[in-house]
Design a protein that fits this description.
136 residues, two-stranded antiparallel ribbon, 2 strands
């Protein structure tokens, strides 16, 4: 028995069938792709927007709650990131904006790495405007 099957049985639910496990792996691949698109978006901005659209499209009531938490976290990451970037650009005239932009870069990378780590563990992740992500 795999660790995931043990976890499912401990929660009182039946183990996933092979078909369900394949479907879940496909859903997890989509969530992973969003994190990767966000990281590439630091160099090629359009990919971050594609990741946002993918997160909105893939979020579904049919997904496990922990997976929908990832999509919500990714959507928040995009919009909060836009806010950080705009504030950084506006404040760059007085030099403090560059610090905001550097913080934004670090913030995005940490959120994506923590998100991918939680995704691999099939754990939920949540966060706010000033957090790097809390894994449940």
């Amino acid at each position: 028995m795999t660790e995931n099957n043990l976890t499912e049985m401990e929660k009182g639910s039946a183990p996933l069938s092979e078909e369900q496990r394949k479907q879940l792996k496909g859903q997890m691949s989509s969530a992973r792709a969003v994190y990767i698109l966000y990281l590439i978006g630091l160099v090629i901005g359009l990919t971050a927007f594609i990741g946002l659209v993918l997160a909105y499209v893939k979020r579904s009531p049919d997904n496990p709650d922990w997976l929908n938490d990832h999509y919500s976290f990714q959507i928040q990451t995009f919009w909060y990131g836009v806010l950080y970037f705009i504030v950084g650009i506006l404040l760059s005239a007085i030099l403090i904006g560059w610090l905001v932009i550097v913080y934004w870069l670090v913030w995005i990378v940490i959120r994506c790495v923590k998100g991918m780590s939680a995704l691999e563990s099939e754990k939920s992740i949540k966060g706010g405007l000033f957090t790097f992500g809390n894994i449940d």
